[in-house]
Design goal:
The protein is an alpha/beta fold. It has 2 domains: 190 residues, Aspartate Aminotransferase, domain 1 (Alpha-Beta Complex), CATH 3.90.1150; 286 residues, Type I PLP-dependent aspartate aminotransferase-like (Major domain) (Aspartate Aminotransferase, domain 2, 3-Layer(aba) Sandwich). It is built from 16 helices and 15 strands. Strands 4-10-9-8-7-5-6 form a 7-stranded mixed beta sheet, sandwiched between helices. A 4-stranded mixed beta sheet has the order 1-2-3-13. α15 packs across α16. It is globular.
Length: 505
């Protein structure tokens, strides 16, 4: 049945294209997953969005605000690394639904598990996981998440989205911090008088039940759009405009220069200044800091990098002050940087691991890893109806299976190295246009001179058959799937050069 369905899908999508072997020795061929993937992009319309996309977005506009939409997608005809739109344009997709597609469009492993008996009961009977988890839930958590749990973290809390993951991680941090403060004061909820004072005051949004604790974040950070996560988001004003926010502190993230090996001394000084500001804020904040939250690479804020030494020192500062460290891997996690978790590159042992690691996007599921100490004192506190989704957990299991079986982390490193070599040559050829090339794995970015030129470049790239996106003020970011192959590198380089010429000449 499965083979028949896949065959039918392939006939609807693409005519078979010749398989292209990987260029590096030791990597298995991945073309068997997408034999119908086109050999190159196909652009049929003079503009993107074309007339059919515009019509679809106009229809959508009667019900929802479609103004942020790039075009209307045709997911039935999208395959592998290529996305199709309503007009029949087929673009090499280096945006991947805001960095959230791990295995390419319509990957057989995802299609297969989507038709499994486990998926059918999960779809038909969505459980309220906190109160009536299915009997299989523990084994699903093990297979989907715990096989790739970050070092030192043995618990997982599942949520609905990346913002939810950070929001609920913040709640866990506050509960842990408050419980520790009560222990230091010999208070306990076992005392009816103590519990009553906390319950009555929290219902008035007042201390001690609603304590005035804060989360420390970094400028240019992006951690989500809900109230707590939004209060730690500092990437763009458009995210925060008109929304009340908690008065939480933010310090500057290091603004390192590229190439890194050309500015080692300057970058070390810049990181030291940032770390000093962290220490001063932790020590002098008028409100107690419960946790520090940081991205391994600030993504929405402009793909801002820092060295492993910076993060090791950040861990030392937080541990010395008994402040939790939350690492936001919503965008960097699940292999894009060449390791499953970007923070693996920091070289931390299990005793110095982050206290919390949040995830979403390429995992398709969302949540956060933590240690048992972050379980609240009472049940029913960090809680909602769904607490995640077995459907997405089953997809996460298939993703982990495929990453491990097909050695996709090695593929990411191999293709990322080849792509960086091509981009370095382009940067040398067009230094007035392209600068500050940086990246890990295929998690790559470079800068253009201005916001307007960056936005025009992205429009030109779509007309050349490559879907890309920006971040920060004038940065272009590449966020391909984990299945990007060496055969795509030449296409990307050729189209990028054409896009630079079209934009800057």
């Amino acid at each position: 049945m499965w083979a028949h369905r896949l065959s039918r899908f392939n006939r609807l999508a693409w005519q078979p294209a010749p398989a292209t072997p990987l260029l590096r020795r030791g990597l298995a061929s991945h073309t068997r997953w997408f034999p119908q993937e086109p050999a190159e992009p196909l652009v049929k319309t003079t503009t993107i969005p074309g007339p059919q996309s515009k019509a679809a977005l106009e229809a959508l506009g009667r019900l929802q605000d479609p103004r942020a939409a790039i075009f209307a997608s045709d997911f039935q005809r999208s395959i592998g690394n290529y996305i199709a739109d309503a007009d029949g344009n087929v673009l090499l997709d280096l945006y991947a639904q805001i960095s959230s597609i791990p295995l390419g469009y319509n990957h057989p492993a995802i299609l297969e598990i989507s038709q499994s008996p486990e998926m059918l009961w999960a779809l038909a009977n969505r459980p309220a996981l906190g109160v009536m988890p299915p009997k299989e839930w523990a084994s699903i958590l093990e297979d989907a998440f715990m096989r790739v749990a970050p070092k030192g973290l043995d618990q997982v809390f599942t949520t609905m989205c990346g913002s939810c993951a950070n929001e609920l991680a913040y709640k866990a941090a506050f509960m842990h911090f408050a419980a520790r403060k009560r222990q230091e004061s010999s208070l306990t909820f076992a005392s009816p008088r103590t519990l009553q004072a906390y319950e009555e005051s929290c219902m008035k949004n007042q201390p001690p039940g609603s304590p005035e604790y804060v989360i420390l974040s970094f400028k240019q950070a992006f951690h989500g759009r809900m109230f707590g996560s939004l209060s730690t988001t500092r990437s763009k004003a458009i995210h925060k405009l008109d929304i009340p926010a908690f008065p939480w502190p933010a310090v500057r993230f290091p603004r390192v220069q590229f190439p890194l090996d050309g500015y080692a001394a300057e970058n070390q000084q810049e990181e030291s200044r940032s770390l000093q500001e962290v220490a001063q804020t932790l020590d002098s904040s008028p409100l107690p800091v419960a946790a520090v939250v940081v991205e391994p690479i600030q993504s929405e804020g402009g793909d801002n990098h820092a060295s492993p030494h910076f993060f090791r020192e950040l861990r030392r500062l937080t541990r010395d002050r008994d402040v939790l460290l939350i690492v936001d891997e919503v965008q960097t996690g699940v292999g894009a940087t060449g390791t499953f978790w970007a923070h693996e590159k920091w070289g931390l042992d299990a005793d110095n691991a982050p206290d919390v690691v949040t995830f979403s996007k390429k995992f398709q599921a969302a949540g956060f890893y933590h240690t048992r100490k972050l379980r609240p004192e009472q049940a029913y506190r960090n809680f909602n109806t769904w607490l995640g989704d077995p459907v997405r957990a089953l997809h996460a299991k298939a993703i982990v299976d495929t990453v491990k079986r097909d050695n996709l982390l090695q593929l990411v490193n191999d293709v990322g190295g080849a792509l960086m070599t091509q981009l370095e040559a382009l940067q040398a050829q067009y230094p007035q246009a392209m600068s500050n090339l940086r990246g890990q794995g295929t998690f790559i970015a470079f800068d253009l001179p201005s916001t307007d030129q960056r936005n025009q470049f992205l429009t030109n790239m779509r007309s050349l058959g490559v879907n890309m996106a920006g971040c920060g003020d004038h940065t272009v970011r590449l966020r391909p799937m984990l299945v990007l192959q060496p055969k795509h590198v030449g296409i990307i380089a050729d189209r990028l050069e054409a896009g630079l010429k079209r934009t800057f000449t």
